[in-house]
Amino acid sequence: MESKGIDCDEHGCVIAVWTEAASRQKAHRASEYVLATGGIMGGGLIMDYAGRPREEVFSLPINIPGKRSDWLNQEFLSPSGHPIFRAGISINANFQPIENSVKVLHENLYAVGSLLGNGEYIRERSFDGVNLTTGYIVGSCL
Asked: What are the residue ranges spanned by the domains of the chain?
């Protein structure tokens, strides 16, 4: 489901997510939204040819470690992993995406799973655990 944008109200709450349907755009409306599109490996976070990161649905800011030349270690199976896999969305204690460590971007949007930043979920072998646990926590609180 390819996103074609979002609509927000005057307070910044998401009121619709637009996708491409068979021959038209379709609005998906809800009171709360949970973003679980995956990280870099899952396709929820994209790097363009110039190395600029972007999140595909809500255009959320992505925290990315260091400069592009430092994203990958020289050793493919490095025990310390690769810094690029720590890239992701920053959230507050309520799983709401934030900017500049404090500003909630959309009050009714929550982010879960491997698109969350600062973890190397595959190297840590916590990938499915992070996905299931964060999804369960947010789902239980809505």
From this structure: 32-141
CB 11 within 8 A of CB 17: no
DSSP 49-114: TTS-EEETTT----B--S-GGGSS-SSTT-TT--GGGG-BB-B-TTS-BEETTTEES-TTEEE-GG
**Do residues 93 and 138 lie in contact, with contact meaning Cβ atoms separated by under 8 Å?**
no
pLDDT tens digits, one per residue of 45-99: 888 888 788 898 999 999 887 787 788 888 888 888 888 888 899 999 999 999 9
CA angle 126, 131, 136 (to 5 degrees): 125
pTM, full prediction: 0.86
